[in-house]
Amino acid sequence: MQEPNATPAQISGVVQPTQHIVIISDEPVGFTWKHFAIGALVPIMLLVTPILLLNGMEQPDWGAPTETNEFKLVKSEGTNYSANFELEDHLVIDHCRVVIEDQEQTDFNYWCDNFESYFVLYKEERATAKNTQVGEYSKESGVITFDNSIDYGESLDFKLTTYDEALEPEAPAFMLVVNLIRGICLVYPLISIVFIVVGLSSGRKGLGYGGITSLLAYPILALASFSTVWKHI
């Protein structure tokens, strides 16, 4: 019995050379005004928009209605003056003042370092600006004390201004825009630098030059932002 032929069949023909596929991108390389506009206007408009929005908003009235209490500090012994005052729970101390005639003619000035529920009275030497405590008040004690080692007679006039903390106005939308401006001022240079690096490294010169333009505009816009926020707060 004859064995079958195990020799593989030969394939004849012409092998075509491998063809290279070239992908042509529609994205232009080099300088284009489209890329320049993106690099320059995106950071600028991010900051200019909330500035214009803040200028168009009504400025809140930050001051709560105040009430001025006028009473006498009565001399108790020596040069010590005092008065009783009960600060209600919903009230906060805003300001206090010892009323003395011809105060400007003296060598010192009285001023009040006030907090929500207590204050400290100081005497400031005009020549040296040295401060010395001469009085105090706390809600817990309920007593205003004053002693500057000077005899002012039987009593002294005293003014204490308070306000209701619950009536203090809130402006969440206004403060949201203010905080937005502050945040964008911080990230603005980073955005410009990213556009510069990405644009110049990828051959999109317009994007890089736009980033440079926005970065150069940053000091002027930051100053405008600061003045706008300062004017409204």
If you had to describe this structure to a student in words, what would you say it looks like?
By secondary structure, the protein is α+β, with helices and mostly antiparallel strands. The chain folds into 2 domains: 33-59 and 170-232, no CATH class; 66-167, no CATH class. Helix content is 35%, strand content 27%. The chain has 3 helices and 8 strands, in the order αββββββββαα. The protein has helices at residues 33-56, 172-201, 205-232, and strands at residues 66-77, 80-84, 91-99, 108-114, 118-125, 131-138, 143-146, 155-164. An 8-stranded antiparallel β-sheet has the order 3-8-1-2-7-6-5-4, with no helix packed on it. The chain is elongated and about 90 Å long. Mean pLDDT is 83; it is low at 21-25.
Low-confidence runs (pLDDT<50, min 5 residues)?
21-25
Task: Please tell me what the overall shape is.
Answer: elongated
Major beta sheet, strand line-up:
3-8-1-2-7-6-5-4
Provide the structure class: alpha+beta
Number of domains: 2
Supply database-style keywords:
2 domains; alpha+beta; 8-stranded antiparallel β-sheet; single chain
Q: Could you give a quick summary of the protein structure above?
A:
This protein has helices at 33-56, 172-201, 205-232; strands at 66-77, 80-84, 91-99, 108-114, 118-125, 131-138, 143-146, 155-164. With 233 residues, the protein is α+β, with helices and mostly antiparallel strands. It folds into 2 domains: 33-59 and 170-232, no CATH class; 66-167, no CATH class.
Question: Layout of SSEs?
Answer:
Blueprint: H1 33-56, E1 66-77, E2 80-84, E3 91-99, E4 108-114, E5 118-125, E6 131-138, E7 143-146, E8 155-164, H2 172-201, H3 205-232
Antiparallel strand pairs: 1-2, 1-8, 2-7, 3-8, 4-5, 5-6, 6-7
Helix pairs in contact: 1-2, 1-3, 2-3
